[in-house]
Specification:
alpha+beta, L-ascorbic acid binding, OGFD3 protein, Oxoglu/Fe-dep_dioxygenase_dom
C-alpha cells in the first residue's frame, strides 16, 4: 500500500484539522452553483462538533434499526430517508415492511437528534469551505453502516474498493462521515484511507469524530476490511444541486 500517514489517531482530540488540496476536474462536467460548488477542495477532521455521548445515542438508533434486518455479508446499511435496510442478500423498505410499528422503534427524539447532528455537520463543512450552509442540500444516499468481519456474500458487501463519490453518485459535492465506534477498541481494521499518489492518509475512527471532504477525485478513498468487532458510522452527503436534495427523515 505504500507509505501510510495517519491524519487522525483515535487518541487525538482534534479541534479542527484541515488539509487543502487542488480540486479535480470532476466538478466541470456538472452544473456549477455559485457559492456552493467546490472552488477550494480538501479534507478535514473534527472531534468537537458532536459529543461522544451524542454519538452513542445515534449509534443506538442505528443498532435498533439494523436489529430488524442485516446483511448476510459483513456490511449492513440503514437509510432512514428512503427506508432502505439490508436484509439477507437484499434490501427491504423499512417503512413499508414495518408500517406503524416504526413508532415503537424510533422516537421523535431520535429523529430530532439526527436532524440536529446533520445540521451541525452541514454548518461546519460550510464554514471550513467558505460556502453558504443554506446553499447545500442533503442528498442520497445518506445512511448508517454496520461493518464486521463476516465474508462478503454480494457486491453490496464489498465496501473496501477504492472509489470517488462524485464519480459513483454524481450529485455528491461534499461527503461527511460521523463515526459511532472506536478503532482498536470496538473493532480492528476498518480505518478510512485517502489514497494519494505519494502515500495513503488514514483516519482512525473514534465515536463522535467527523471526517469530511470534497467529493471529487482529489479524495479517492477506501475503507480497510474490518478484521474483528463491529464498526458503526453514518455517511451524510451534500449536493449543491437543489434538484438532488432530500428531506430529513422520516419521509412523509
Amino acid at each position: 500500500d505504500g507509505v501510510t500517514e495517519v491524519l487522525a489517531h483515535r487518541s487525538d482530540n482534534l479541534r479542527d484539522k484541515f488539509i487543502e488540496i487542488p480540486c479535480s476536474e470532476d466538478y466541470d462536467s456538472h452544473r456549477r452553483f455559485a457559492g456552493c460548488t467546490p472552488r477550494k477542495c480538501g479534507r478535514g477532521v473534527t472531534d468537537v462538533v458532536i459529543t461522544r455521548e451524542e454519538a452513542e445515542r445515534i449509534r443506538r438508533i442505528a443498532e435498533r434499526g439494523l436489529s430488524l434486518g442485516g446483511s448476510d455479508g459483513g456490511a449492513s446499511i440503514l437509510d432512514l430517508h428512503s427506508g432502505a435496510l439490508s436484509l439477507g442478500k437484499h434490501f427491504v423498505n423499512l417503512y413499508r415492511y414495518f408500517g406503524d410499528k416504526i413508532q415503537e422503534i424510533f422516537t421523535e427524539e431520535d429523529f430530532a437528534l439526527y436532524r440536529d447532528v446533520r445540521q451541525r455537520i452541514q454548518q461546519r463543512i460550510a464554514q471550513v469551505f467558505g460556502i453558504s450552509s443554506s446553499a447545500m442540500y442533503l442528498t442520497k444516499p445518506t445512511f448508517f453502516s454496520r461493518m464486521n468481519s463476516t465474508g462478503a456474500k454480494t457486491t453490496h458487501d464489498e465496501y473496501w474498493h477504492p472509489h470517488v463519490d462524485k464519480v459513483t453518485y454524481g450529485s455528491f459535492d461534499y461527503t461527511s462521515l460521523l463515526y459511532l465506534s472506536d478503532y482498536s477498541k470496538d473493532f480492528g481494521g476498518g480505518r478510512f484511507v485517502f489514497m494519494d499518489a505519494d502515500s495513503n492518509k488514514t483516519v482512525e475512527p473514534r465515536a463522535g469524530r467527523v471526517s469530511f471532504f470534497t467529493s471529487g477525485s482529489e479524495n479517492l478513498h477506501r475503507v480497510e476490511k474490518v478484521q474483528w468487532g463491529t464498526r458503526f458510522a453514518i455517511t451524510i452527503s451534500f449536493t449543491c444541486d437543489p434538484e438532488h436534495g432530500i428531506g430529513d427523515p422520516p419521509p412523509g
